[in-house]
Amino acid sequence: xxxxxxxxxxxxxxxxxxxxxxxxxxxxxxxxxxxxxxxxxxxxxxxxxxxxxxxxxxxxxxxxxxxxxxxxxxxxxxxxxxxxxxxxxxxxxxxxxxxxxxxxxxxxxxxxxxxxxxxxxxxxxxxxxxxxxxxxxxxxxxxxxxxxxxxxxxxxxxxxxxxxxxxxxxxxxxxxxxxxxxxxxxxxxxxxxxxxxxxxxxxxxxxxxxxxxxxxxxxxxxxxxxxxxxxxxxxxxxxxxxxxxxxxxxxxxxxxxxxxxxxxxxxxxxxxxxxxxxxxxxxxxxxxxxxxxxxxxxxxxxxxxxxxxxxxxxxxxxxxxxxxxxxxxxxxxxxxxxxxxxxxxxxxxxxxxxxxxxxxxxxxxxxxxxxxxxxxxxxxxxxxxxxxxxxxxxxxxxxxxxxxxxxxxxxxxxxxxxxxxxxxxxxxxxxxxxxxxxxxxxxxxxxxxxxxxxxxxxxxxxxxxxxxxxxxxxxxxxxxxxx
Amino acid sequence: xxxxxxxxxxxxxxxxxxxxxxxxxxxxxxxxxxxxxxxxxxxxxxxxxxxxxxxxxxxxxxxxxxxxxxxxxxxxxxxxxxxxxxxxxxxxxxxxxxxxxxxxxxxxxxxxxxxxxxxxxxxxxxxxxxxxxxxxxxxxxxxxxxxxxxxxxxxxxxxxxxxxxxxxxxxxxxxxxxxxxxxxxxxxxxxxxxxxxxxxxxxxxxxxxxxxxxxxxxxxxxxxxxxxxxxxxxxxxxxxxxxxxxxxxxxxxxxxxxxxxxxxxxxxxxxxxxxxxxxxxxxxxxxxxxxxxxxxxxxxxxxxxxxxxxxxxxxxxxxxxxxxxxxxxxxxxxxxxxxxxxxxxxxxxxxxxxxxxxxxxxxxxxxxxxxxxxxxxxxxxxxxxxxxxxxxxxxxxxxxxxxxxxxxxxxxxxxxxxxxxxxxxxxxxxxxxxxxxxxxxxxxxxxxxxxxxxxxxxxxxxxxxxxxxxxxxxxxxxxxxxxxxxxx
Lengths: 483, 488
Prior knowledge:
The complex is a heterodimer. Chain A is mainly beta. Among the domains of chain A are: 41-78, no CATH class; 140-279, no CATH class. Chain A is built from 2 helices and 27 strands. The longest helix of chain A is centred in the N-terminal third of the chain and has 12 residues, at 2-13. Among the domains of chain B are: 2-144, no CATH class; 322-357, no CATH class. Chain B has helices spanning 2-16, 65-69, 110-120, 123-131, 146-150, 179-183, 197-209, 211-217, 220-224, 233-236, 265-268, 276-279, 285-289, 298-301, 329-332, 334-339, 341-345, 350-357, 375-380, 391-401, 421-431, 433-437, 442-446, 466-472, 474-477. In chain B, helix 1 (2-16) packs across helix 4 (123-131) and helix 7 packs across helix 8. Residues 1-44 of chain B have low confidence and may be disordered.
């Protein structure tokens, strides 16, 4: 299949020049990614081999051990090194001028294959996807799309096979859409995509329909969207949601962005945010204050939403400042607080606050050199990350860019003890061989410095990638990379 | 008498007609005078010494008899007539010849003027009023000055080149043989003020109101050296550039109109659909395509392509909208993309979004190495992972593969930072349910949270509305309940 797609991409690229009035723009992107890591494996240990530390925790070889009376003690240890080499081929295109004014076709298809290795990388075994594939007819104020669409909105990406009609007039717009629903993130119809993956998914398709309307004026854009997703036999809903998005400028050059979504079946506001942004000190400083509420969204075809997830509220301050013509800094500080989980607790309740801080500095000491460093602290209620990354970019040639990176971080995963500190570095190369051909390759090597008192290599990981992107067609936009 | 008539005729002609030109026979109504100062063969100084002959020729028409009647062959005396005096004995012989006549830019009719003069009864004075220096002697012939014409003509402009009625005196340059050579030597009218933006913006109104004025000096060739489209009526009204003319070497300049500099122009210029005739003054379709992704809007498609036109056009380069030019845009474009999706689709196709949000390359949407340390970001739900990733297919599959995922066993193990995790997990689960779902299957939880489970622990919070839940999706209730909890 992959070979077939590669062949098709090459064929399209080599098509003879189009007829007058016709046009095609597109790209083909091939990528190969390499992963090497050591998966965790559950193991058992005899109780007499367990050590009890000063903190009262039980360990074996420095790894925490869980013991339950009557059954062997268990622990997770690093397994052997496993690798995966995953290849993918994307082809995206838009063709127009096909005998009818305003008619065009847009498509994005993807083929994947696990080329080598014993590690099952997510979705690598899904050989072919049509991410987008629709015909569009633009006439006067109306636009009709037929086919597979993936619409970004305040409700996330909504994919469906169907039709969408849009009307534009004097800044106002309205849209109606409907069709067979696609599983989120899988680009396949729900019945096909979720079978065997989700526990309670019905063996039926779902249909999505809805409408959106909005206005876009000079300094203000507002949009409202409603969509409903229903099981084919109408026995139940998958989702029914609405979203409101607003972007505007208030007097004093104050930029305001706000959004909120509403989950109709659960009768609750989901995610919402309000951002105020303003330039200060003659534009040398940009400040943004954000208040945000977050509740995860789950489809009604799963039980998760019925487990009453609670929201968190977050306040965030972001500042970007130009220190000089060649240097700048960005700072982001955030604090969040979770809502009452309404559960009885044993011992002390878990931490229900979180903090984030991030500082990024950028410096361009020479025309062809740029340096960037980022420190990030994410102190969550369930996980923790403290990281420092630095990168040096060198424009070694007009068409060749080399980037060297170094990183160190310490993290605790979800309610799990820390895995020590990782040190790593990498290099990547971007080559713009021609206006149409772009090649990139790189590697990233991470080595564990120390972890849980065990051996130093339990978390070692290596990544590598190679990409080739070829643009074809006659859209002037090609000169500036894909759009 | 004969000797007197000849010099008189010669004097009359020489007074002003030294610059006369014209085919004569083909267009007898026009004298066709080339303009003084222009590179015309006839635009030279007086070739006949009129003043020394003063007294010999009492009447201008004595020599230039054909002037009044429009008899072109008789405009000038025969050169042989000079021999009457210049016989080599009394006076030395001379080698005089009448000026070579060529079609010039001046569209002047002596017969018409003669009629006017005759009606006024000032025949002789009329000749002098144009051809003799002011307050000069009768035969003090000087080159013709435009101001003399302007002193009588009705519109009476303040100065030559600023009048609105050029056609009163001039024919078009295109009608003049060798006009392309003449073109470069013509003086520039004051109001043209080449280099000033004001004239560039306003000259179209002149063309609209007085096409003849433009046509005096210009052919369509001049317009098309700057104007992308030649479809405008004002341009079409100008003479077609004669074949064989030397190509015009004019530098196109495209000053930015005031309206274009507004900070909202990038949003409003297409709404309503612009009058493409205005756009095509400076822009080709390629300029639109610099930002607009193909297929272009219909109004843009009506513009010519760059290879189809002679003018260079503005030649726009793609420009990032001001909304994109903040350090926070990459993380904050969601709202704008949702509120005004057409704003994005101006420059981007859906494949562009997917190419980043669903990239199969590194780095894509996430920074390099993000998968190695995404736990904190996923735990904080800084981004809603399920917007792009299917939790069950993507997160769970990977977590199981690397040993983090649930194998159905719910004993302590992975969450080893908290003692007695199993009986303490409720708070963490409600506050981070996405995280649970990224490793655990739904059946994992139902081992306890179900009527069929071991402990029959209700997962519903205090605000849970069972009626609404069952109404919206009754069959999911049966994942945990043996029968519909509210009946039915």
